Amino acid sequence: MRKSRKKSKNDFAGLRARSEWKEVIMEERYYDLVFIVRPATPEEEIKKVLTVIDHTVAEKGGKIEKTEHWGTRKLAYRVAKHREGIYVHQEIRTNHGELIAELERRLRVQDNVIKYQTVRLDEDLKRQKKLSQKREKRAARRPRRTPAPAQRRQRRSRPRLAARSARRRIF
Predict the structure, then answer these.
(1) Does residue 4 belong to any structural domain of this protein?
(2) Which residue spans within 122-162 are E strands per DSSP?
(3) What's the domain range around 74?
(4) Residue 115 — φ and ψ, nearest 5°?
(5) What is the pLDDT of residue 8?
(6) Res. 97 pLDDT band, cuts 50 70 90
(7) Looking at residues 129-148, what average pLDDT do you find?
(8) What is the pLDDT of residue 88?
(9) How far apart are the C-alpha atoms of 118 and 104, rounded to whole Å?
(10) By C-alpha distance, which of 7, 8, 15, 31 is closest to 116?
(11) How many CA atoms lie within 13 A of 110 on its CB side?
């Protein structure tokens, strides 16, 4: 038989804390966003899509570092019955992970956008930084070698080559 115990105020403290959650600010993250627009899309429509993205990023407290129009390029395979598309690249900084989910949702809804991809870059940057720090530590531990004085090497004649060329002449 299970004994039931009386619930105290402290048992519900966790529930109260969850309901009063404040927005947690994460470390700043860096993302690459590339999306492809249908090739026949007028420039005004592309600007509308960029405005939607700008508005969403500003609303969530992010910042667009760079926007590049890569122009019309051939696709590797057919996407939505198209062989080419207009590529747009953006670099985004944000503290909120939900911003990327919202951006992808809005891009998915856009009729002109046929493909999109978001890549988190700060993990790669961290990995590179960590590797360079390890290399520096390893280099600091290693004693520096002083290069030996340069000695002239005498070239040896290669008797094999001479024998080979002599054989070729015979045959």
Answers:
(1) no
(2) none
(3) 23-125
(4) -160, 145
(5) 54
(6) confident
(7) 80
(8) 95
(9) 8
(10) 31
(11) 25
Separation of CA 107 from chain center: 19
Helix axes 43-59, 98-109, angle to 10 degrees: 150
Q: What percent of the chain has pLDDT over 90?
A: 48
| CATH number for position 119 | 3.30.70.60
Strand duo 29-37 + 113-120: pairing: antiparallel
Number of domains present in the structure of the chain: 1
β-pair partners for 113: 37
**Looking at the domain assignment, is residue 93 inside a domain?**
yes
Q: CA 2, CA 5: separation in Å to the nearest integer? A: 10
Q: Is residue 166 part of a domain?
A: no
Residue 171 pLDDT level (bands cut at 50, 70, 90): very low
As a whole number of Å, the CA-based R_g of the chain is 31
CA dist 78 and 94 (Å) reads 33
Residue located via tokens 């985004």: 92
Record the pTM: 0.60
CB atoms within 10 A of CB 127: 10
Q: Give yes or no for residue 107 having a pLDDT over 70.
A: yes
Angle at 43 between CA 38 and CA 47, to 5 degrees: 95
Is 73 inside any structural domain?
Answer: yes
Helix (H) or strand (E) holding 88, with range, is strand 82-94
